[in-house]
Amino acid sequence: MKDKISERISKDPEFVSLVRNKAGLIVPATLFFIVYYFALPVGAGWFPELMQKEVWGKVNVAYLFALSQFFMTWGLAFLYVWAAAGWDRQEHRLLRKFGADPKE
Amino acid sequence: MIAIVDQANTALWMFLAFVAATLVITFFSARQSKGASAYFAAGRRITGWQNGLAIAGDYMSAASFLGIAGMIAMNGYDGFLYSVGFLVAYLTVLFLVAEPLRNTGKYTMADVLAFRLSPKPVRAVASVSTLTVSLFYMIAQMVGAGVLVRQLIPGIPYEAAVIGVGVLMVVYVVFGGMLATTWVQIIKAVLLISGSLFLSYLVLQKFNFRLGEFFASLTAISSTGPSGETVTRNFLHPGLIFKNPWDQISLGMALLFGTAGLPHILIRFYTVPDAKTARVSVVWAMLIIGAFYIMTTFFGFGAASLLGPDYVRVNGGTNMAAPELARLLGGEVFFAFISAVAFATILAVVAGLTIGASTSFAHDFFVNVIHHGRESRPGEEVKVARITAFVVGAASMGVAILLGPSVNVAFLVGLAFAVAASANLPVMLASLFWKRFTTAGAVWGLGTGLVSSIGLILVSPDFMKDPIFPLKNPALLSIPLGLLATWLGTVLSKEQPSEERFVELTVRAQTGLGAEKATDH
Questions:
Q1: I want to staple B202 with a disulfide (CB 3.0 to 4.6 A). Which of B10, B244, B329, B376 is the partner?
Q2: Cross-chain Cβ contact A58/B84 below 8 Å
């Protein structure tokens, strides 16, 4: 019985669009943070002159780039939460359509 | 002499106050913990912000509090690179793991794998991987705890400190289960954040709250070089200690992909009512963990600037940089407070590791592998978990005492992350998103990730004078090996994966249909 619900849900256009919406954010965002993160050890290891350049008083590119990683992380997390609120609405519509209580 | 005794007493009283508070919590949790869901998952009734604090408390170990502060104090910027990796890793947790795991599993990571693969082999191998990761990590924490307590409260020997920590963690887990563990972690996170906030405040006060002045003080830090000469270095420059960038990249891979495969972190997502709360809790954890690691700027670099590397080296070494800074800026009482925070930090992490290991043994191995998924007597699963917690605690105490205080165990933490990244995460993701994935793929992937991580460590610079594998952390090679084995095991097996179960898993992972619900007390 439950299997049949899953089967039918999986074919529903709303489900297909939900999965596509999620992937549409998660895949590029994941690639982005991986590249952004590894740019830091790559920069620290192979571009020391660029990293040692002082930008604000004595604060250099290396420190600011490391600090920017924190804000990049928080920024992407909030972007995800914001997008996920939309996915939640889509999910509730979908489950209600198939007679499953989304609260359950 | 009298001053030393007094100072020891202040620290000791603060330790004891923390221990007393956590034991009261354990007592009340024990009265509430009825049934498996209550014991393993705190009844799935932990709220988002509570779980966020608990994740932070579960994750921020003594290695990150004392270790990173010390690394920055001794060699500057390179230590700060660790701070970054520990936070960014949570994007992997948030994007790929937390919600699908909460939707599809019950108590352990292996639940996700067993959903559509042949349950017995995958649970058995996943349980071995979980126990290995947890034990490595725990031994590192226990040795660290022994060394630390000995330094923080003079007069307490290494063995006594290890036994004390071991007994407490077993008491929390055996009697209080997940609920007590959660509250120990929450209290620890609050203490750690308050302690580091105040320490950062005191550092900035020294510089009249002028950030420019603070950073300017870091550009010329003098210390004694290897042959007795005075060296002056700019502590904001990268590369003062890490000479091989590939080491940093390998470590970064272990952190970035390993955090989302650490069993004691994953089981925290089963303690909340639903996937949405799991998501909210990761974001809370990220705010807390991020704030903490940004503050390592102030107390790490602050120790470099105000104490200096030479002072740190002769006053207890790297791990004592943060407590010594607290002593300089806030006096003996604040030193005692920071010491007690460090102690709480260790306890919360080892308690999380203990419940993670014992849950996996009881739920995956005992009930589902040996007893075919059924308890022979009601309550047996919880009983087995309690016995396992006791055994795991005793084993890690024994190993920590045998190794002794002088063994360098830092590599064990890196190894735990490497195994999690090379074995657990690839297999979990394949199981959630790859239709063609098979049981053989999971077993090969977990096995190869585990064996290659351990094997590479054994031929690395930590173990060999002329290392065969040049990097300290195996992740750079062991992750591709784990992925390759997962793929090969799948394409070479004749097993026809159940499409129906995959559809069910996908719908459940993406919508929460049929996910485990919160229980009443």
A1: B329
A2: no
